[in-house]
Design brief:
The protein is of the alpha/beta class. It is 31% helix and 27% strand. The chain folds into 2 domains: 7-149 and 297-317, Rossmann fold, CATH 3.40.50; 151-294, Rossmann fold (3-Layer(aba) Sandwich). α1 (16-26) packs across α9 and α2 (66-82) packs parallel to α3.
Amino acid sequence: MSVNGNIKIFTGNAHPELAKEICEHLSCDLGIANTSRFSDGEFNFSIGENVRGADVFIIQPTCPPTDTHLMELLIMIDAFIRASAERVTAVIPYFGYARSDKKDKPRVPISAKLVANLITTAGAHRVMTIDLHAAQIQGFFDIPVDHLFAAPVIIKYFQENPLEDLVVVAPDTGGAERARAYAKRLNAGLALVDKRREKANVAEVMNVVGDVKGKNCLIVDDMCDTGGTLSKVAEALYNNGAKSIRACFTHAVLSGNAVETLSKSHIEKIIVTNTIPLRDSAKKLAEEGRIEVLSVAKLLARGIKSIHDETSVSSLFI
């Protein structure tokens, strides 16, 4: 894949490895910039090359520490706008604060809308992201949003590594549509786990809807934070006679004791993507083969090329 024209790829400190991989797919060099910090912790950013009239893409997932990486993104956008870039696209593989997308109880913010406003106010012309936690967040922006899906990357993996008697499992009712799409593409069965969440980051599994006895189960979700939901879903499947249990999710946030929780669970293998750098504590599980990381660099590179060439991105959803 080769890009012709005045295109520039830059990155902050969130995930430079992913940015470099994207550049390899696009056969271009990563843009030169200073992404250091002052002694007081403030982000010290400056562009090291001419970007006047350029089509700029900033690769910056707002992964933990979320506030730090979000502020870096806003400052970088402002710098490129002031440097007279023709267009600035914020490529945010993982969009932080996406879980705060509505007022589900009194006196709480809608943080996802606030972040959308900040990115727009900073001057971004468009946004590209992967697997938003809530699809309606696209509507929070007053600029175009290209919402890509990691499903083709993950589904391809399981097509190349097929499992007999496969049942795709939605960990909650909200993930039913995603699980149904996976099941259709993989010619697999479908099951649903009914879950009640009593408080934030604590999940209680109630029961399994669907036949999982003697089946190879694949839990499908968009992200994993504490690992509590996944481990309890896996326990419910195990108690209902599942033959084997695997899990796949796009964003490996894995905060707190998530890695320890998952390592003690009934999940044999976890498939994730590199929208977020794998935490050091999770790399041990990767070395043991319990976690496998799939790259979304080619997917993002194709999206960047489509935006730059003003062609449709719909082919990326196949």
